[in-house]
Amino acid sequence: MALRFDQRVAIVTGAGNGLGRSHALLLGSLGAKVVVNDLGGGAHGDGKSSTAADAVVAEIIAAGGEAVANYDSVEHGERIVQTALDAFGTVDIVINNAGILRDVSFHKMTQADWDLILKVHLTGSMSVSHAAWPIMRDKGYGRIIMTTSAAGLYGNFGQANYCAAKLGLAGLANCLAEEGRSKGIQVNTIAPIAASRLTETIMPPELLANLKPEHVSPLVAWLCHEDCEQTKGIFEVGAGYISQLRWERTQGQSFPLGKNFSVDDVANKWNTIGDFTNAGHPATVNDSFAPILHNINNPRLGGNEFIDLDEAV
Ligand code: NAI
After folding, report:
1. Structural domains in the chain plus CATH codes
2. C or N: which end of the chain has fewer Cβ atoms within 10 Å?
């Protein structure tokens, strides 16, 4: 079986370099019609140029594929989607990938550092997805990828703006996955690691040599394929390794309603509250609410079997 993307139209943002270029080349080689979007600026958000996008379009066409360039910044999502409509008549796949860095420790971060990173990563991904959304809803089909980062998922020194934007993307994806569920629109998030101009200064060359963008793109393409039923997933991917993330929640501690509990009670149960033995894996807001509702419905005994019954009377 060779999975293909014939008749599918894909927008890849920031596709002039690095990961986006690799995604675009792979989809183009598998039959997709590709909009190669790239502003063509520097790694810190400076300048613009058509060179990067044009070069990737030329590569796709030279390999026998179909592609057009778009040079708009991602916060103008409607223009990028319009390029897809003008060239290919529709859009099936949006890969939100464009990104820059403005790394600086929080106490030195300026409002401009914050605004620019939020604009490119979070607003940009929203904007392109938002412009494609009505088309996908009408046709009952769509595949959207968000590109988060380990920095966003776990936190990293000197990247407050980037971490906030990147975890915001996971939140956006989770919401769109729910809204798209009944419309055939699937939304997934990747946290990649790859050698690119964003990482070439922060990782040693011998490590970068094994972190090829081409090792990330097969996962992205699979998540964008019509045979793939995955939605609302978050995946870590790099150097040939792929894994899925999920939330984990401790069993927790229920304090009985109708009886005040104190700061000391919280302090005394702190180890239980943080004990991940037999942890659960909530995946929806209903899952989140369930133990709280259970506590409400069992006001004398508290919320679960781990309640300290001596204290619950
Ligand atoms: P890259 O710098 O090689 O490519 C990013 C591309 O996005 C560039 O061609 C740039 O011109 C374009 N771009 C920047 N701002 C744009 C805008 N406003 N509108 C349109 N295009 C714009 O970087 P790389 O590493 O390929 O990054 C791709 C994505 O992956 C980014 O979102 C980045 O944050 C994310 N990422 C990368 C990691 C890595 O290890 N390389 C790690 C975690 C996340």
Report:
1. 9-245 (3.40.50.720), 263-311 (no CATH)
2. N
